[in-house]
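Annex B, item 7. Sequence and structure tokens for protein A, then protein B.
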Amino acid sequence: LAWNRESVGQGDLVNGPTNPHAKLRLFGSKEKPRVMLFRDQSAWCPYCQKVWLMLEEKRIPYEVRKVNMRCYGPKESWYLKIVPNGMLPAMLLDGKLYTESDRIMQILENE
């Protein structure tokens, strides 16, 4: 069997339908995203999911960096330099860090 993105329904990860494998979502925008979302590798953390779904629903362009959850082992050192307590999700908006899913959603709602 030959497996590729089209054969498993992934298609256009940047501008197409929502997909947990996407690392960049532009929704047709040509601008560099102002948002960097740090979320879990497996896409099953409910706190990460609600932020992710809000970005998708509001069609806010964003980049994704995936981070190990502690149940899969230690957090990556690069992430702990950004978020010392290792919390997920986290978001950089115009270079400013936000943690706590409800706070992130509040910030996004006001954008």
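Protein B:
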Amino acid sequence: MPSQVSFSTAITWVAMLCLLALCQMQQPAEAQVSDAARRLGWDEFAGYVSTREEVLSKHRSDRRRYEEKMAMYQLQLQRHELGIEHLVNPNRIRQKIRSFQKKIDKMQGDLTEDQVEDILDKEDARAEVNRYRRSLKAEL
């Protein structure tokens, strides 16, 4: 049974790669989200697209959200250590605090221009897949 799963997974990946290659050959002009669509935040084929400012804003808000979660877990751990609140597994809370601290440390400062470009390129790739799916729906 496991060999069937891996075989079907491989077939799925090959099919996706073929579809992407075919889509790029048929529609080279639409391979990227246009600058005008990016400014508007909407592409008629791909749907919603982010702007550079939105990517940076999301990065900042994610960092704040992680800091808030870490503070909540630190408070829970302090309450446990003071005997106010009993935690079943305080080691799990310590592990979460370490994980959030690592994530926050990685997210210090704003994203570089290259990082923003990478995020936007990934979004363009997802948009290309959405375009292809919508074109298939339109053909049916």
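Comment on protein B: The beta strands are 42-43, 47-48.
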